[in-house]
Amino acid sequence: MAKLIVDLQGTVLEQEEVEILNHPLVAGVILFTRNFVDIPQLRELIKNIRQKVKHPLLITVDQEGGRVQRFRQGFTQLPAMQAFARLLPTVEEQQYWAKESAWLMAAEMMAMDIDLSFAPVLDVGHQCKAIGDRSFHQDWQQVLPLAEAFCDGMLQAGMATTGKHFPGHGHVVADSHLETPKDERPINQIFQQDLQPFQQLIDRNKLKAIMPAHVIYTQADERPASGSAYWLKQILREQLGFKGIIFSDDLGMKGAGVMGSFVERSRQALAAGCDILLLCNERAGVIEVLDNLVYQPTEQEKTAYLQLAKRQHFSLSELQATSRWVNAHHSLTNLQQKWLEVKG
């Protein structure tokens, strides 16, 4: 299959980017806050991507909610995942609003012709700087029902789910955007706790894709999970029976640096079992990989990633006219405002 998801530098599509996106190894594009001014501009940017690229692309974003929400103006201010368990009094309410948040997030993105928002976060615990309140809870048994409800909401909207960051990023302090964290815990502790949300949701067929962590689990392997055949082939594929798409986390992050140059990182992640690689904020690195990564996909692999394309088509105005959107928009905006007040 096409192997790379890349970023754009600004709010309009540049000619160099048209050429990059048309490369046969490019599977999609990921959008960031720097690519967004307002809804009309975003709509035009995505329209240009679709029109100027000859093969189908996945258009993706991180629109989880809370502090990780790339598009804000004109979209619902979604609550952080931790807010559901912390602020809502009953399990039923927590699960209901987790599902509605996921449905609304996915529906708003799909209305902009975006295929995937990389969610949900299945990491257990809040101590990691990179995760924090992106995690539903510090107890995996509390994470699971909320994450399952979130998956149900996304799937109901017509968007594929991506569980991250396998096998769990929540118990390291270091931020993998800045360095390579090491999780020194015994492997059985990781299996009994962090791995459980992934395993349970795979068993229930709720995850269509998974993104591994740039974390070294020292008691299991010397490589980060994103470049580890032990974690991706032996555990995720063989032991857990996952049959969906495996995305690498961003290979431009400092946490991936232990795997070498951008080409070496890409080769190692592919050899470990990743199907699609993210490489962001490194334009020279993207060009280097496209020029030097030799890969011959099978006919099946060439289109396998398209199973993750969005399933429904509707406009933002059509969505916002529904009573479900109106109710969810109002309630979730209030929940996030309360969360911000609680956090101070």
TrEMBL record:
GO terms for cellular component: cytoplasm. The keyword Cell cycle applies. The gene is nagZ. The active site is at H177 (proton donor/acceptor), D249 (nucleophile). This is Beta-hexosaminidase. Keywords: Cell cycle, Cell division, Cell shape, Cell wall biogenesis/degradation, Cytoplasm, Glycosidase, Hydrolase, Peptidoglycan synthesis. It catalyses: Hydrolysis of terminal non-reducing N-acetyl-D-hexosamine residues in N-acetyl-beta-D-hexosaminides. Belongs to the glycosyl hydrolase 3 family. NagZ subfamily. Pathway: Cell wall biogenesis; peptidoglycan recycling. Its EC number is 3.2.1.52. InterPro entries: Beta_hexosaminidase_bac (IPR022956), GH (IPR017853), Glyco_hydro_3_AS (IPR019800), Glyco_hydro_3_N (IPR001764), Glyco_hydro_3_N_sf (IPR036962), NagZ_Beta-hexosaminidase (IPR050226). It comes from the Bacteria. It holds the Pfam family Glyco_hydro_3. Plays a role in peptidoglycan recycling by cleaving the terminal beta-1,4-linked N-acetylglucosamine (GlcNAc) from peptide-linked peptidoglycan fragments, giving rise to free GlcNAc, anhydro-N-acetylmuramic acid and anhydro-N-acetylmuramic acid-linked peptides. The keyword Cell division applies. One of its GO terms (biological process) is cell wall organization. The record marks D175 as: Important for catalytic activity. HAMAP family: NagZ. It is found in: Cytoplasm. Gene3D superfamilies: Glycoside hydrolase, family 3, N-terminal domain. GO terms for molecular function: beta-N-acetylhexosaminidase activity. Substrate binds at D62, R70, R134, K164, H165.
